[in-house]
Every structure is written in structure tokens, then in C-alpha cells.
Amino acid sequence: MSAGLSKIKRRISSIESTKKITNAMELVSSVKLKRRRKAMDNTLEYLQMMSEIISDCVRGLDQKGQHVSRLLKPCTTGTGVLYLVVTSNLGLCGGYNYNIIKYLNKIITDKDEVMMVGTKGLIKLKAEGKSDVNVDELDALDNFDFKRVKRLEERLGNIYREGKYTSIVLVYTKYVNSITFEPSQVQVLPVEEMKEDTGNIVKSRTVYPPIYAPDRSEVFRLLVPKYLDTLLYEKFEEAMVCEEGSRRNAMENATDNADDLQSELTLIFNKARQAAITNSIIEIMAGKLADEE
């Protein structure tokens, strides 16, 4: 009985240590989530304003210039879609990476190709037998900043102009609320006209329309790279917000489960100890009665 009590006591101690770790990780993720959420909201507001201008330019664009038109229309020489997939470099974030890969497998075809961001997604794809994955931007989340996103936008622009793909689509995790995150996709190239009430883009209600100088085509040409930079930056930020949110929720659940298991084991320990004490008392009383006889 003593050995059994010692084993239960060691398990309770081990669970207590694990609970301290998961609770600390939950607190760290909460702080990171708050900081990234603020950055995402600020970027989203800027993206919305730029989207309104881009959309207005597209509606009045005369489609002159090869450079502009190739960013607006699907490539006719391409045979598939290039999917830029954003996953995490770290684990312990629940079903975050699993849900992204599951979503990707539903939309990808044999003609399409994948450019992976994040090592966890690459590991899952390789486990499924997919070896032809582009890993040029695998470490894009390391030291993440706007300069890194700008280099990525330039790379994607050059890839699209080569005419190999009909479009370039970003697959990421969309933030719904603090406990709900949904895998989603957004077309990066060719640039699509933003429509009213589509996604988070809100149509401006300005009374006086903007005046474009020297013309819409030139403004569009200058703004498209900046818009793509901002779009990628915001979606990457949103994906990282979802990653931290998933990690926080996973650690919160792990801490709650540790509490439940610890309470259950404590109850078992107390019952076993009480039973051991009772048995000891019975043995003592039995021995005393035997001596008296």
C-alpha cells in the first residue's frame, strides 16, 4: 500500500510541475497575442484605406501598359496555382497547423504547387508524401518585419510575371474571435478589384471623390506594390495572431486538464491513505486482542 501511495504522490507532483509550465506558457502567449492583435488592427485599418483607392483606380483604369495589365489579369500561359501557405515554426498550438494543411489538401490539385512558410507545415506535408514543396520562404516568419515582406512581394511578382502560374494565392488562418480561427485564402496576384461588403474591406463614403495626378494608371502602378506589401504583412500578422491564440487556448486547456487530473488523483490518494490507516488500526487491534486471549 505504501508503494502505491508513493506512486500516486509522484504523479501528483509531476502534474503540478507540468501545470506550472503550461500556465506560464499561457501567460506568455496572452501577452504576445495582445501585442500582435494591436499591430494587426492598425495594419488592417491602413489596408482598408489603401484598398478603397486601389479599387477606385481599377474601376477607371484604361488597362494600358503591359506591366499593369499582367498584374490585373490571370496569366493565360499558366497551368496551375501557386499556393503560399503560412504555418508556424513552433508547436504546442493545438490544431493550428493541422487545420491549415487539411484545408490546403481540399483545394489543391495536381497542377498546383506549394510555397511553404513555417517548418511545421513542411513536416506535415512531407509526412503525407509531398516532397515537391518550395522552401525558399520557409523562414519568412523569423525576424518578421516589413522589409522581409517587401522582399517576398518582389519575389512573388517576379514569379507571376514569368507566366508559370495562373494566380498566386495566400493560404493562412483567419482571425474570427479569441477562440475561433478559420483556415482561409486570399488571392495575391493577379490583383482583384475590391468589392463592397467583401471581407473586411469597407467602401469609403466620401462625398468628394479623389483627384488622381497625373492619372489613375500612374497612381495604380505606384500603389500596387505597396498594396501587396501591406496585404501580405496584414495576413501574416493575422496568421501569427491566430497561432498565439491557438497556443494560448491549448495551454489553457492543458492547465485545466492538469487541475482536473490533480484533483482526481488527490482524491484517490486521500482514499488510499485513509484505507491504509484503517487497515493499520485493524491490524493493531487484532494483534492486541490476540495477545489478550
How many strands, what sense, and barrel or not for the largest sheet? 5 strands, mixed
Would you give the CATH topology?
Answer: Pyruvate Kinase, Chain: A, domain 1
How many beta strands in the DSSP annotation? 5
The proportion of strand residues reads: 5-15%
Radius of gyration of CA atoms, rounded to a whole number: 29 Å
Mean pLDDT: 85
Spatial arrangement of strands, main beta sheet: 3-2-1-4-5
Count of separate structural domains: 1
Shape: elongated
Distance between the terminal alpha carbons, to the nearest Å? Answer: 29 Å
**Considering the protein shown, what is the CATH homologous superfamily?**
ATP synthase, F1 complex, gamma subunit
Structural class: alpha/beta
Low confidence ranges: 196-205
So, CATH architecture? 3-Layer(aba) Sandwich
User: Helix amount, in percent?
Assistant: 55-70%
DSSP helical segment count: 6
Helix and strand run:
HHEHEHEHEEH
**CATH class category:** Alpha Beta
